[in-house]
Write a structure and sequence with these properties.
Length: 311
């Protein structure tokens, strides 16, 4: 899945190779289009692209239009689909989308945007119909949309999932999360899993492993031995996180809450833990549990982005 970070990184890398590029921003949707307002696509004059604006229906044609705009060196607002003068480019769903095509997007603004997302700070990418591009800090009130002749796109950090646990459930969830396109980190007492990339060994329940969360990071605990959980949860719960959940039945979760209370964790913090976890009730095999949990986490990420102004 192409995220804003992957599209912006693509543009940065293409420019580094000496290629002229265009940034395309989907600024409006009429009807039931496949992508939402604020979706990005990057195009190189070499003929390739990153990102999708119509689910595969018109990307090649849009890339062709972007290369035309690159050659002309002037930003352009373009309608595709219903209501477009380009009768040879149609969306099968019958909808229409408006695109802002910015040729040779400002490399400094692109670099700032990539850096901001890399350090997990939200920002506003302001793209003007005159081709200007600038990055601004994003506050809680920042919203995606037009401001006079400038389209403001709120950029939120990509979803990051920290998985703490052991066994096949950890492997399955890490694999599926990576395939979806989120960042994955694993904390585990399992020596075999700890040898994998982006994995940290957990020698004891109180080992001082990195556990830094943020509003776009979820933590899921997948321990069969629940004695490992309390120290990690006690560190995680006071932080501003996207979602925290732990594997186990309702009875297991009730015992977990008792253990946390005995460890001095306030009840209002412990109440934030999701348990049982997953959208599929009583999933027992690792792959189904992973799919079930990932769906719940992705839903939470989507809700957080909507609340922060992304349509």
């Amino acid at each position: 899945m192409a995220t804003p970070l992957t599209v912006l990184s693509y543009l940065q890398n293409a420019a580094g190779r000496g290629e002229r590029t265009a940034l395309i921003v989907l600024t409006a949707v009429e009807g039931g289009a496949a992508r939402g307002t604020g979706t990005l696509m990057g195009v190189s004059e070499a003929g390739d692209w990153c990102g999708s604006l119509s689910g595969g229906c018109t990307e090649a044609a849009i890339a062709g239009e972007a290369r035309r705009v690159i050659a002309g060196s002037k930003a352009e607002v373009l309608r595709i689909g219903a209501g477009s003068p380009l009768i040879d480019i149609r969306l099968p769903c019958g909808s229409g989308i408006d695109l802002l095509i910015v040729p040779q997007p400002d490399s400094a603004a692109i670099a700032e945007a990539v850096e901001s997302l890399d350090v997990r700070q939200p920002a506003i990418l302001a793209a003007g119909t005159d081709g200007a591009l600038a990055l601004h800090a994003a506050d809680a009130e920042a919203r995606t949309g037009w401001h006079d002749a400038t389209f403001h796109l709120r950029l939120d950090p990509p979803l990051r999932l920290v998985i703490a646990g052991h066994g096949e459930e950890v492997e399955a969830l890490a694999r599926q999360t990576g395939a979806w396109g989120a960042l994955v980190e694993v904390i585990t007492p399992d020596e075999r899993l700890a040898s994998q990339p982006r994995a940290t060994p957990l020698k004891t329940p109180t080992s001082p492993v990195p556990l830094d969360l943020d509003p776009w990071t979820a933590l899921v605990l997948l321990f069969h031995d629940h004695d490992w959980e309390v120290p990690l949860l006690a560190r995680a719960l006071p932080q501003d996180s996207l979602w925290i959940g732990a594997m186990g039945s309702r009875a297991t979760h009730a015992r977990r809450l008792v253990a946390l209370a005995e460890a001095g964790v306030p009840a209002d913090q412990a109440a934030a833990i999701h348990g049982p976890i997953g959208l599929i009730p009583s999933a027992r095999d690792p792959e189904t549990l992973a799919l079930s949990v990932l769906a719940e986490v992705v839903a939470a990420y989507g809700a957080r982005r909507s609340s922060q102004g992304f349509p």
